[in-house]
Specification:
It is a single chain. The chain is of the alpha/beta class and 340 residues long. The protein contains 8 helices and 17 strands. The strands form 4 sheets. A 7-stranded parallel beta sheet has the order 7-11-6-1-4-5-12, with helices on both faces. Strands 14-13-15-16-17 form a 5-stranded parallel beta sheet.
Length: 340
């Protein structure tokens, strides 16, 4: 009762990275609240194969649902698993990834339980809230923090009354950290038939094709990112050349993607990929809140910008004041010279 729950997304018998990141965050939230951390995993032939990927993150109780129709993911049975389990367990918080599965599952569960749901959170904290209109004070609410109004402000959203307080978070926003490799949590294998009616298996997956990502932005140690200031698709060609010299990856801001300068899968930020490279070189990027949310955890941030007052300069470790047309070719030239 009143514990923190994390829905663990599975690909076969492999737990998704975003779920492990949320288990780490969930453990911290549970510690703050003085409650237990519980996890839910549903799939086929998963017993004995997923526990070691979940429990070490500090999970006190793992709910396993193992049945043929639960893999690959389909909406109805997984919704029934969570809705019926939550009716029994009454969690105060539920976290899940803001990816294809989480974006389908989260709203269904939230709607069925009449609870709130905040999508694409960049931060989660615990704190008090005063509803001045109703004259009520609330302790220990989940602060669901995310950029709003096109990234112009950062909104803190609370759900005072209804439970669970639900939030989805993109992969890479939180950091996954194993608490204890030998953490002893309780594993409960549920009778799936008690939670999922036969009619939920009406949809059968006949064929499934998963394409691998064309880039490795999440794992790249060096990222060269371009913004609207790159001016054109040809401008991005310079960044690809620089990335080749530095053995890095190229990313882009939302403005650059919207302008057609680079592909959507290269977008970094709140509505794109969240990255943590050792070196992040921002070229012609002004630094909207949404973009900064996706790269602020970078080790060293270098900003190349003709505007000395660009917002990204305030978080940059080094600022090169100049046009990208002037600076980037020089970087390419000198790196080529030094790599010989």
């Amino acid at each position: 009762m009143n514990n923190v729950f994390v829905y663990c997304e599975l690909e076969g018998t492999t737990v998704a990275e975003v779920s492990q990141e949320l288990l780490t965050k969930g453990r911290k939230l549970a510690n703050t609240l003085g409650v237990q951390l519980e996890a839910v995993a549903a799939g086929s032939n998963i017993c004995g194969k997923v526990e070691s990927q979940i429990l070490p993150y500090g999970v006190d109780k793992l709910h396993l649902f193992d049945a043929e129709g639960l893999s690959p993911y389909t909406s109805l049975p997984h919704t029934s698993v969570l809705v019926n389990l939550f009716k029994e367990e009454k969690p105060q918080i539920c976290l899940m990834g803001a990816d294809v599965v989480g974006r389908d599952l989260g709203p269904r569960v939230s709607s069925a339980l009449h609870s709130g749901l905040t999508a694409d959170c960049t931060s989660l904290e615990i704190g008090p809230h005063d509803d001045k209109k109703a004259g009520k004070h609330y302790d220990n609410l989940l602060y669901q923090i995310r950029p709003a109004f096109g990234g112009n402000i950062v909104a803190t959203i609370v759900n005072p009354e209804n439970r669970p307080q639900m939030a989805t978070v993109r992969s890479g926003v939180m950091k996954a950290e194993i608490l204890d490799p030998n953490y002893q949590g309780e594993v409960i294998v549920h009778d799936v038939a008690k939670y999922v009616p036969e009619t939920d298996y009406v949809v059968k997956v006949i064929d499934r094709h998963v394409e691998k990502a064309k880039n490795n932005l999440k794992g790249a140690p060096i990222i060269i990112a371009g913004g609207y200031g790159m001016g054109s698709k040809e401008g991005f060609d310079m960044l690809f050349e620089l990335a080749k010299e530095l053995h890095g990856e190229v990313g882009g801001s939302r403005a650059a993607v919207d302008a057609g300068f680079c592909d959507h899968d290269l977008q970094i930020g709140q509505t794109g990929v969240t990255v943590r490279p050792k070196v992040y070189i921002a070229c012609g990027i002004s630094g909207a809140i949404q973009h900064i949310a996706g790269m602020k955890e970078s080790g060293i941030i270098i900003s190349i910008n003709s505007d000395p007052n660009a917002p990204i300069n305030t978080i940059a470790d080094y600022v090169i004041n100049g046009t990208v047309e002037e600076v980037v070719p020089k970087l390419i030239k000198y790196y080529k010279q030094n790599s010989k």
